[in-house]
Amino acid sequence: LLVASIVIVEDDPHIRRLASEALAAGGHHVDTASAALEGLKLVVAEKPDLVILDLGLPDLDGAELLRMLRAVSQVPVIVATAREGDEHVVGALDAGADDYLIKPYSVAQLEARVRAVLRRAEQAEPEPVLEIGGLRIDQGAREAVLDGRLLDLSPKEFDLLALLAGRAGEVVSKRDMLSEVWRQPYGGGDRTVDVHLSSLRTKLGESAKSPRYLHTVHGVGVKLVAPEHPSKQ
Ligand code: CA
Predict the structure, then answer these.
(1) Ligand 1 centroid vs 75 CA: distance in angstroms?
(2) How, if at all, do strands 214-217 and 149-150 pair?
(3) Per-residue pLDDT for 191 more than 50?
């Protein structure tokens, strides 16, 4: 991932141009926004590999935007700040920033931070193949096999299964499913999740009432676990 798609949210046109030109010259695909809400929309739409976020924006504080962003995305974020004092940087890191730049920063500093964050993000990428009981999910090939049989899943059903399998043994909330699979930041999509869970269960040969892999934890979410008797059927 040496070449990445990057969103820069920066209201200063001079810095915005310098940063985007430097990163584009490095082969990256760069999109820019000059305000917080525009930036949030861009990140949701583009699903970039990295965001560079100015903390001093005209419409919303950058730290506030970072919290909103973290509700919908785990994209690596480098915050840029001209503000004096550690507390701004510490606050941004606490709010979910991966790294920071203090303005004025040089192109070389920017490039070094971007390289470091992309390298860490790459190392943190999920296992390409997940195996739980008789279930095998190949995220590269986007194929799921159950007890040796290839499952015919829609793209969203596959993403949902991969999300649950990637966090096997853990209860995943519907809110998390909505934000991770549908990239929807706020509620109102419960029904979408339910419909997909139901069809996923059917394709796995189970139901909410007699679960094997997908266990509903009422009021919390769904947990994927290996069944006690993997080839019961
Ligand atoms: Ca600014």
Answers:
(1) 21
(2) unpaired
(3) yes
Measured CA to CA, the distance from residue 73 to residue 54 in angstroms comes to 18
8 Cα to the center of ligand 1, angstroms: 12
- Reference 26, options 93, 90, 91, 118; nearest CA is 118
Segments of 104-161 assigned E as strands: 129-132, 135-138, 143-146, 149-150
Residue partners of 38: CB distance under 8 A and separation at least 6: 9
Amino acid at site 101: L
Pairing between β-strand 77-81 and β-strand 50-54 as defined by DSSP bridges: parallel
Ligand 1 centroid distance, CA of 56 (Å): 4
Residues with CB under 5 A from ligand 1 (ion): 11, 54, 56
pLDDT in tens, 118-145: 988 877 766 689 999 999 999 888 999 9
pTM to 2 decimal places: 0.58
Q: Looking at per-residue confidence, does 126 or 158 come out higher? A: 158
Q: Return left, alpha or beta for 69; rule: phi > 0 is left, psi -120 to 50 is alpha, else beta.
A: alpha
